[in-house]
Amino acid sequence: MIFRNIFKNYRFTSKLIITYLLLTVIPMAIIGYVSYWQYNRSIENQVGKYIPRILSQTNDNIDRKLDELQNLSELIYNSNEVVSILRKKTSQSQSRSLQDKFAVEGYLSRTYLSGNYSDVLGVFIYSNNRIFQKANLAYSAFDPNSLPVGQELNFRGKVSIILPLDAGLQFEGAVPYLLIVKPIKDSDNQKTLGTMYIAVTMKFIENVLSELANEDSATLWIMDMKGKIIYHTDSERIGGIYDDARLFPVTDGSFKKMSSSKSELFSVSRSASTSWTLAYRIPMEKLTAQTDRLRSLMITAFVLFVAVTGVISVLLAWNFTRPLIQLRRLMVDVQRGNFQVDMQIRSRDDEIGMLAHRFNAMVKEIRALIQENYQIEIKQKEAQLYALQFQINPHFMYNTLETISMAVEQGERETAVEMVSLLGRMMRFSLSNKRRTIPISEELQHVEDFLQIQKYRFEDALEYAIHSSIESENYGTLKFILQPIVENSIKYGLEHRQKVYIELEIDEVRDENGKSVSIRFSIRDNGVGMDADRLQQVRHMLSDSQFMQRDSGVGLLNVHSRIAMEYGESYGLSIDSEKEKGTVTVLEIPVLPMEDEK
C-alpha cells in the first residue's frame, strides 16, 4: 500500500519507464531462470535415464561373463580318468592316492591354468575327504570346511558364488576374486562325487566397468541383496557393507540424494540372474558444469539487455507522454473558456492521435456552435450547448485521460484501448448535432459509455444496471437528458458513500385502454438522498417557470427545461427522495416513433 501511494505521486514519464522496465526485465528474468532451470532438469533427466540403461547393459555383460566362468566346471566331465578317480573311495594305498592326485591336478593345470582362461586364479576339488588343488598364485591353505557350504556339499545342482571374506582363502597380493562353487555329479547315477571351487579374478568386472569408471568424480560398486560390496572402484571397500542400500527408493532407475552436504545423482540396476545391484554415483555439480557456464553467459546477456531496455524505455516514455502533456495544457485552456486552441497531430492511426483529432474536432465544433447559434433560439440552443459542454467537460476528459494513463502504467492495454474507444464514441455522439431527436437506443448507449468510463475510474465503488422493456431503437428522444442525472448521482453519492449503485429503467406508460401515452425513464440510486425541506425546494425550482426561463447551471433544471420547452410542460422531470435511502428521478417524454422523424 505504501509503495502504491508513492508510485501514484511519480510523474507520468517516470511511471511509464518503471512500468516498461517491469514488463520487460521481470519477464525476461523469469524466462531466463525458468529456461536455465528447465535445461538443468533436462540434463538431469537425460542422464538419469541414460545411465540406468548403460548399467543394465553392463549387468548383462557381467552376467554373460559369469555364465561363461560357471560353465568351466563342466570341463571336468571331459576326462574319464578324472571322473573315475573321483568315484573312488578314500580307502586305498598312499602311492595310489598320490598317483590319482597327480593325474587330477595335472588335468586341472592343463585345462584351466594353461592360458586359455586368464581369469582363473585357481581350481580346487573336494571329494571323499580328498582335496585336489592347482593355482597360478600362491595362496593360503584351502579348507572347504570353513566355507558356508563346505559342510553340506549339497547345492542341488546350482552354482554358488562366494566372496573372499566368506571363503577364508587369500591369494598372494590380496588379489580380489570370486569363488565359483558347483557340485560334481556322476552322470551315471547322479550321485555327488564332490565339489568344485574355481577362483576367478575380478578383472573381468573392471574391464566391463572401465568405460563407466573413467569419470574421476564417479563412483561404481556392485553389492548383493544384503548390501555386501562385491566390487568397488575403491578396492578397500570390497567386502564391506553399504548400509544405505535398503533406503534406495528404486532398484532400477535414478534418484537424487544429499550426501556429505552436497547433492548427488544415484543410478542403480539389479541383475535378474545374480540379484546383484550395480550402483553409480556422481555429484550433481559435475553434471551441471556446462549449465553453470551457460548461467554466467545468460547473466551477462541479461545485464546488457537491462541497460539497452532502460535507454529504450526512456525514449519511448518521453515520446509517448509529450503529446499527453500538450493535450493536458490545451484542456486547461478550454476549461478556462479559451476555445481558440488547436493540437498538432503527428499520427492519426494511434490512440493518442485519434484522441487529439477528436479533441480538435470537438473544440472546432464548439466554436462553430457558439458562432452560429448565439442569436438563434437562445434558450433552447443555450441549453443544448450547455448539455454538449457538460458532456465534454474538460474535468471529465482530464479524469478519463488520467484513468487511461493509469491503465497503461499497469499494463492493462485492453482496458486503455476500451476506454479510448468509449471516449471516442462519446465524442462522436456529442459532435453529431444534426438531428434534434435521436433514437432512445443511442441515448442509452451514450449514458452506458459514460457509466462504463466512470466504472473504470471508480472500480468497485460504482455499480450500475440498465433495464429496458421497449424497443428503444424505434422511439426518439432529446439528446443528453440522462447523463446529467446519472452524473449527479455519482458525484453526490460518492461524497458520502463508499459504494454507489445506480439503476436505469425504461418502460412505457399506458392509459386505461392499454394505449402507450408516454415513455418513462426511472433513475434510482442509493445515495444519501434529501430531507423533506430540500426535496420541497428542488420540486419548487422544477415547477417555477422563472427558474426554467433562466440559463440555470443546475443539471436537473437544464434537463427539465429542455424537455418542457420541446414537448410541453406536462412532460419533464420529477424527483422523489428520502434521507439516507437514496433518490428516484423520473423523466417522462411523449411517444415519438422514429419514422415520424425521418
TrEMBL record:
Domain of life: Bacteria
Subcellular location: Cell membrane
Keywords of the record: ATP-binding, Cell membrane, Kinase, Membrane, Nucleotide-binding, Phosphoprotein, Transferase, Transmembrane, Transmembrane helix, Two-component regulatory system
SMART domains: HAMP, HATPase_c
One of the record's GO cellular component terms: plasma membrane
SUPFAM superfamilies to which the protein is assigned, alphabetical: ATPase domain of HSP90 chaperone/DNA topoisomerase II/histidine kinase (SSF55874), HAMP domain-like (SSF158472)
Keyword flag Transmembrane helix: yes
UniProt keyword Acyltransferase present: no
Cross-referenced InterPro entries: Bact_2-comp_sensor_kinase, dCache_1, HAMP_dom, HATPase_C_sf, HATPase_dom, Sig_transdc_His_kin_internal
GO molecular function: ATP binding; phosphorelay sensor kinase activity
Gene3D superfamilies named in the record: 6.10.340.10, Histidine kinase-like ATPase, C-terminal domain (3.30.565.10), PAS domain (3.30.450.20)
Name of the protein in its database record: Sensor histidine kinase YesM
Gene: yesM_1
